[in-house]
Write a structure and sequence with these properties.
The complex is a heterodimer of chains A (about 200) and B (about 400). With about 200 residues, chain A is α/β, with parallel strands linked by helices. Chain A is built from seven helices and six strands, in the order H-H-E-H-E-E-H-E-H-E-H-H-E. Chain A is elongated and about 90 Å long. About 10% of the residues of chain A have low confidence. Helix content of chain B is about 60%, strand content about 5%. Chain B is built from 18 helices and eight strands. Chain B is elongated and about 105 Å long. The C terminus of chain B is likely disordered. Classes of the chains: A alpha/beta (about 200), B mainly alpha (about 400). Chains A and B meet through helix 1, helix 2, helix 5, helix 7 and strand 6 of A and helix 3, helix 10, helix 11, helix 13 and strand 5 of B. Strand 6 of chain A pairs antiparallel with strand 8 of chain B.
Chain lengths: ~200, ~400
């Protein structure tokens, strides 16, 4: 009896170990190549240090710190002659993960990126950082605005400007009695398989 | 995948059913392991039988190793597991009472039930004592409450209290358990007057020992999670999709769908923070802020929804970040409102809608946008959604009309 138990114990331990190590190897083979988990990249981006706001750019220019950065313009080189930096380099957005480009970013850190849209610049930063190159930053706003608002005509009113700000009093234009006051998603509020019917205040039942 | 109930794979209403099935299995295993014998159970205190210690140590290291390795492989979300809260005084006093009862009666609560069920009279007395104790505690709860709730430390982990990493703690637990197996066997042999074996580990146990040590080293050396998992989308594919701009949904399409809820198959996901969401959100939208969108519960919720997702924020920046995170996680059918809320309002309410174009399509679009803007201003979208409320898997909770208010 004891011999059987030991045999079963050995076999099950061996089976579990083989299965787990097998899955680890499969995962290692199939998983795409990233240097950070999605959550790690998200926390790098969300801590606010990945986006350089106009007033920060202005401050860097005044302290002559911009020369330490390599500026990348994610455009097909249009209207960037009067750009922000002397040594700017233009790279197409869809090529930023090419091997030579990644090597370039790695060698020329720190890097600042501006693009046709602020979103595109930050997406580029997100993808480059996920490859392990963390000294990469996106300049807030689009390249056209950054060129237009060169440092000589910097306006303090636009110091904190970036695209993630409310530009309208939304409720004034869009009457949606049901929406204000809606609750936020939390761990406990997410319905588990149930269905919730959205009902708004007033009206006929 | 797991834990199954918090992630929505198993209906919480089936909790008791699963408890029943697991309870049956647990009772069967306890009985088969010989735990219905009070002599065997009490043997651990007298040194002649350490099987209880070995069984519980085996259970602890098997579940700890399984939990950590399954978490590494992405089969279990460790962060979503329930951690029992720690009340120091009740743990100390309860532990002393249970330990005393264990030595004297030879049972712990679970094993006493198992033994009583198979007809052991001592176990039946033990269970009666157990019930009297429960009744006594319940009757004088007010008196015991300060002790019961005293010195609350929250949902803490041992390794946090000791200031060590989770993997180092698990490694040490496995090493200590394996050492305990060897030492208790030697004590047993000595107490029972058996001739002690020459080797520390019996040959038949060497393979399980070696495998357990291998697993212990894996846990120690591996990170909590790999940098990427097999189901994730590669960065190259993400870049390709982002460059193609095909994930953007136009303002016109959303405006149409908001005015025709029956044709709106999107689950609108507002990735702004709670305050902004409270100020304004589209009807039927759910709020999953960008900061928490990578949390296991949110990923699970968004992955399991049957609808295509339409993310929006003030502009495109945050929604695109959320899109990257969700797509990287392998979630399909994720879209972004082009231009965000600002783009939506700019297109509808600020931009002029020319009426003198010669192109029929442009005129049609222009007329639609003008009409849609009027509808939104008059509250038609909200009216549509309240009159024809469709079952939406949503976390939006809207206060029902107060009695006597509203209506015709």
């Amino acid at each position: 009896m004891e011999k059987d138990n030991i045999k079963m114990l050995s076999s099950s331990a061996l089976l579990v170990s083989v299965v787990i190590i097998g899955f680890m190897l499969l995962q290692w083979y199939w998983a795409p190549s990233y240097a950070f988990t999605g959550k790690e990249v998200a926390s790098q981006i969300n801590n606010g240090q990945a986006l350089v706001l106009p007033w920060q750019l202005k401050g860097m220019a005044e302290k002559d710190e911009l020369k330490n950065y390599t500026l990348i313009v994610l455009l097909e080189s249009q209207n960037t002659e009067a750009g922000l930096f002397k040594n700017q380099k233009t790279i197409a957005f869809d090529q930023i993960l090419d091997k030579d480009k990644l090597n370039f970013f790695k060698k020329n850190q720190p890097v600042m990126i501006t693009a046709g849209t602020e979103s595109q610049a930050l997406m580029a930063v997100h993808l480059i950082r996920s490859k392990g190159i963390i000294n990469v930053y996106a300049i807030a706003n689009d390249v056209a605005m950054n060129v237009r608002h060169n440092f000589s005509n910097f306006k303090p009113a636009q110091a904190d400007m970036h695209s993630e700000k409310a530009a309208f009093d939304y409720g004034r234009f869009f009457k949606s009695e049901g929406s204000p006051g809606a609750k936020q998603s939390t761990k406990h509020e997410i319905p588990q398989g149930g269905v919730t019917v959205v009902k708004t205040q007033g009206g006929c039942s | 995948m797991g834990p199954l109930i918090p992630q929505g794979f198993v209906n919480p209403d089936l909790n008791l059913f699963f408890a029943f099935v697991i309870g049956l299995g647990f009772g069967y295993v306890l009985e088969q392991a010989g735990f219905s014998s009070s002599r065997k159970l009490a043997g651990v205190f007298y040194g002649y039988d350490f099987v209880v210690l070995r069984v519980f140590f085996t259970a602890a290291i098997t579940s700890a190793a399984g939990l950590l390795l399954f978490n590494y492989l992405g089969w279990i979300e460790y962060d979503m597991l329930y951690v029992n809260p720690t009340y120091v005084w009740s743990a100390i006093v309860g532990g002393l009472i249970m330990g005393g009862g264990f030595i004297m009666g030879g049972f712990c609560p679970g094993t006493s039930i198992v033994a009583a069920v198979i007809g052991k009279i001592d176990a039946m007395f033990f269970v009666v004592g157990l019930m009297i104790g429960i009744f006594f505690f319940g009757s004088f709860y007010d008196f015991f409450e300060p002790l019961y709730n005293g010195y609350f430390l929250g949902n803490i982990y041992v390794f946090d209290s000791l200031g060590m990493s989770r993997s180092l703690f698990a490694f040490m637990l496995i090493v200590i358990a394996l050492a305990a197996f060897v030492i208790t066997k030697k004590i047993e042999d000595h107490v029972n007057g058996r001739t002690a074996a020459h080797h520390w580990i019996r040959p038949a146990y060497r393979l399980p020992f070696a495998l357990m040590m291998l697993i212990a080293f894996l846990i120690l050396l591996l990170p909590d999670r790999p940098k990427a998992q097999w189901h994730e989308t590669s960065a190259k594919v993400l870049l390709q999709e982002a460059s193609g701009n095909e994930h953007y949904v136009s303002v016109e399409e959303l405006a149409y769908k908001l005015l025709h809820p029956y044709e709106n198959d999107y689950l609108l996901v507002d990735v702004r923070d709670r305050d902004a969401f409270d100020q304004f959100s589209f009807p039927g939208a759910v709020n999953v802020p960008l900061e928490t969108i990578s949390d296991a519960s949110n990923i699970s919720f968004l992955r399991n929804t049957k609808q295509p997702l339409l993310l929006y924020s003030f502009g495109n920046t945050d929604a695109d970040q959320a899109w990257l995170l969700l797509r990287r996680d392998g979630i399909q059918n994720v879209n972004v409102l082009e231009g965000g809320l600002n783009g939506f309002f700019n297109t509808l309410f600020v931009k002029s809608h020319p009426t003198d174009s010669t192109k029929e399509m442009e005129l049609f679009e222009s007329r639609f946008l003008t009409r849609a803007a009027e509808q939104f201003k008059s509250g038609a979208a909200a009216l549509e959604s309240q009159q024809k409320a469709r079952p939406v898997k949503t976390i939006v909770e809207i206060i029902p009309p107060a009695p006597g208010k509203g209506g015709c």
